Amino acid sequence: MSALRATARRSSPLGTTTLAGLKPAFFITLVSIVAVVIAAIMSEPFRSPTNVESLLFQMAPLLLVAAGQAVVITTAGIDLSVGSMMSLATVLAAASSSSAALVIAIVLAVGLAGGLGNGLGVVSGVNPLVMTLGTMAIFRGVALLVLGQPGGIVPPDLLTPLTTVFGNVPLTFLLAVGAVVLLWLATAETRWGRALFAVGGDEGHARRARLPVKRTLLIAYSVSGMFAALAGLALVARIYSGDPNVGDPFALDSITAALIGGIAVTGGRGSVLAVIPAVLLLALTDNLLNLAGVFSYWQYIAKGVILILTLWAYHAAGRPSGLLAMARGGWRKPGGSSGAAGSSGSAAKGAAS
């Protein structure tokens, strides 16, 4: 157990501040703050209350889905179905005439069931990439069956709280940040969280240490499904309707945010809390390009450049992360070791002894 606690400490966003030991969360937070300050100084439209409100509305869905994705990637897995789950959530919200409480319950139940299905497939031996690719198609098909095209009517008693704004801060943004912080605490301070990093670091050692590997993975994918469903509800606050395809870009965006935040794609290292500055940086990029009137397709190029530069910076600081780490390992092979000889694997090995 002490070795697992050491693993959790290594995943914390707190740490040394020398260049070689710079934690990804510190680095990406610093970059995001500098970017916001520069944007505020150079762009008057960026400083407008309306734009700030729009930026925070934009961040809320990605914060939620990226946090869930970060949990799955920490296990050395991946969830490609989150975008389709978000679309399905918006469709369910817009196609139901029930009360807000019932709609939220239905959406969360569907998210939980979808995530649990992914987890059951993974623990039974299906590769996470293949499993979630299949459920991505299933969720998208169900969304199209429920609502064939964008539209529907979101119940007013649901839409009103989703669009509530305090000053210029949307309620959905505050709830999203709160949910991310709670999830971070769960990964950093609970037995499940410590097992999460041990399983991601080296599943074989985690099994020999008699850690609940299957239960840990089931919870991880269930969390991802529920957070994707919550992200879909947050997205309703932006589009005011249901759309069976609106969540498609979020699968890639959530992975990008997690990797920029320092989550190692080989598993066992990172901090869920770091997705907050990572999402801020991505949303800031989109926002500034929109204000500048740049064609929307350039936003994808900008995100790719940011991802590459960030991972290069981690590598230069002696902290290989994300896709750079993937080149040395790969996605977790269900039922075996991730192939990463990282510190988390060592911690799990220590627990076994």
UniProtKB/TrEMBL annotation:
The chain crosses the membrane at residues 25-43, 55-78, 90-114, 126-147, 167-186, 217-240, 297-317. Its main location: membrane. It comes from the Bacteria. It is found in: Cell membrane. Residues 340-353 have a biased composition (Low complexity). It is a multi-pass membrane protein. GO terms for molecular function: transmembrane transporter activity. One of its GO terms (cellular component) is plasma membrane. Residues 334-353 are annotated as: Disordered. InterPro entries: ABC_transp_permease (IPR001851). Keywords: Cell inner membrane, Cell membrane, Membrane, Transmembrane, Transmembrane helix, Transport. This is Autoinducer 2 import system permease protein LsrD. It comes from Conexibacter woesei (strain DSM 14684 / CCUG 47730 / CIP 108061 / JCM 11494 / NBRC 100937 / ID131577).
